[in-house]
Amino acid sequence: MVTGMMTIEVMRRPRLLPQRSFPRYAYLPGRMPHPVRDPAGHSYQVEHALVLPTLDSDEFAWGADLFNHGYYWEAHEAWEGIWQVAERGSALRTLLKGLILLSAAGVKIREGKRAPAMRHAGRAAGLFRQLPKTPHDAFSHALGMSPAMLADIAEASVNAPPVLRATMPGQPEPVYDFILGNSRRFAPLGFTGMSV
Fold first, then answer.
1. What is the average per-residue pLDDT within 83-89?
2. What share of the chain is helix, strand, coil (3-state, %, to 5)?
């Protein structure tokens, strides 16, 4: 074991929206085609659906699915769509900005850029701690933990960066040892959402 590092256990992670297919690669800047600007990108010319600024939307759950499975750039994009339509100055917008920054930290960890990862995670933690403890039980419910706990975990995750596995280019790799999401909404492991 390397001191100051953590190993993320390879585990089957539950899905919130198993009927949606993951992108064909997890984007890392400079290593794969840009998802939306490059014609070879996995989301090039994909029309985005209208999103609602709610925690119980499929788009929020999609962001959590992407995040939990190591698609950090893609999670950032999913949550940014909700953030853009959320009311300015609202607690929801603050929460989403924190999740976007935590996703950016995941990208930086995967790139081996510890200082930017720590900066993004620290900013995310600061935003999570700004959220009042009540009446935001809805946040704890949607995240599967309180925003304050997520702040602590976010900071700890970058202070003890994971030992990354050697993966094929574009292969997603979770760098956090926690899972976001309401556990009652997770599909059973092995459920694909497809009928046989």
1. 95
2. 45, 0, 55
